[in-house]
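Per reviewer request, we include the raw input and output of the structure prediction for the construct analysed in the revised manuscript.
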Amino acid sequence: MKKLALAAGILLHLYSYKAQDTVQSRNLKEDLALINPNFQTKEHDPFFKKDWVKKSVAPTILFAAAAATWGEKENIREVRNRYLPNFKMKYDDYLQYAPAVTVYGLKLAGVKGRNNLGRATLSYATSLAIMGILVNSIKYTSKVERPDGSKNNSFPSGHAAMAFTNASFLHKEYGMVNPAYSIAGYGSATLTGLGRNLNNRHWVPDILAGAGIGIISTELGYFFIDKIYKNKGDNLSILSKIEGNDYPSFLSLKMGTALGTTNFLKESELDDKKQIGFEGGLEGAYFFSKKWGIGADVSFSSFPIKAQRITFDDDQDFGEHTIKTQSMGFLGAGIGPYFSHEFSDKWQLTLKATAGYSATASGKVFVKGDGIDAPNHELQIARYKPRPAFRWNTGASMTYKFNPGLGLTFYTDYNQINSTIRYSFSDDIKESAELDQELNHLIAKEKINYITLGLRLTAYF
C-alpha cells in the first residue's frame, strides 16, 4: 500500500512538473528506483567509450612510440645529420609558450571558453605542477646524455612537455569553440618538438615521452579542479559552439608512393633506372571562400638507389664489384593557392600549385665486393652533398567525406627539383694530387622529377 501511494505521488508530481513547462525534468529511472530498490538504473559504457580510456589513448601511444624508437635513436639522429647537420634555430625556446599565451589573449579579449579566467588559471597551474614533477623526477633519475653531449638530463624533453601541456590547455579551453584552436595548438607543439630534435638537443624518444607527459598532465590537472568545482566547466551551459564557415579549410596527414620520372643520378652515373620510393607528410589550407584559399605542405620523400655493377680491365681479375649509393631523401615545404569544387556533400575536388624549398639528404657511396676486407664487404669511397634547392609542386585530389568534418582523399602530385650535388672522395684519393683535383671538385647537376600517388586523412575546420 505504501508503494502504491508513493507511485501515485510520483506520477502526480511528474504530471504537475510537466504542466508547469519547466526546463528541468525528473529522471524517470531514478523515480522508479524509489519504488523498487532492485531496479537497475546504471548503464555501463563500453570499455573503449569510457572517458578515462579515451583520454589516455594519446599519451599511451606516445609512450609506446618512445619505447619503440629507443633502440633506434642513434639511427634516427643520423637521418637528421644527413639532412640538416648544421641546423641552429632557437624558435623552440619561445614557441612552446604560444598556446598558453593564446588562451590568455582570447580571455582578456572577452572570447568565452570552457572556463572563466580564474578557474582556467587554477587548472593550468595544477597541470604545470604535475608536469614539472613528472619531468624533473624522471630527468634526474634516468640521467640520459643529450645527443650534443652537453648534459645528462635528456629524457624526457621538458620543452616538449611544456609545449604539449600548453597545447592541451588551449584545446581544453577553446577546442569546443572551434577545432582550429586545437589544430593550431598541437601544430605549434609538434614544431617545438621537431625543433628540439633538429637543434640536436634531444633524441626522438625524449620528445615523444615529453609530449605524452604534457597531455596527461593537463588531463589530470583538469580532472582534479573539476572535482573541486563539481562540474566540467563554468560556461558549458551558455557556450554556443561556433559553427564552421562552410569553407573547405582542412588539415591532413598524407602517405603515398613516389614514382621518379627521371634518373636522379644520371649525370653522376650512379644509377641507370627511374626510382620508386615513398612519401609522407602534412598538408593544410585555409579557404577565404568556398572556392579559393592558400595552403602549404611539408613532406618527406625517400628513394632507394639500386646498386650499379662495375667491371675492370679484362686482364685484371678483381672479381665482381658493385657501387652502392645511400638512398636519396627530400625534405620539402611549399606554399601556394588552392582551388576547391564540391560536386556534392560527399565529393570534393581540390587543385593546387605551390613553390618552396627542398633540403636533400647527404649520403655515402660504397664499393661492395667479396674480396673487400671490411664489414659487409663494403668500402666507403665518397660522400655526396646536395645543395638546398627550389621546389615547385602541382597536384589534384578527390575527397570522399564520411561526415562534414572528416574525409579520405586520393591525391596525385608532380614535383620538380633541380639539384646540384657535390662529391667528396676518401682520404686515399686525396693522397693523389691528380685524383684529388679531378674528383673532389666534382659537381653534378641533376633533374629530380617525380609523381606521387597516395591517400590523405583529411580533417575539416
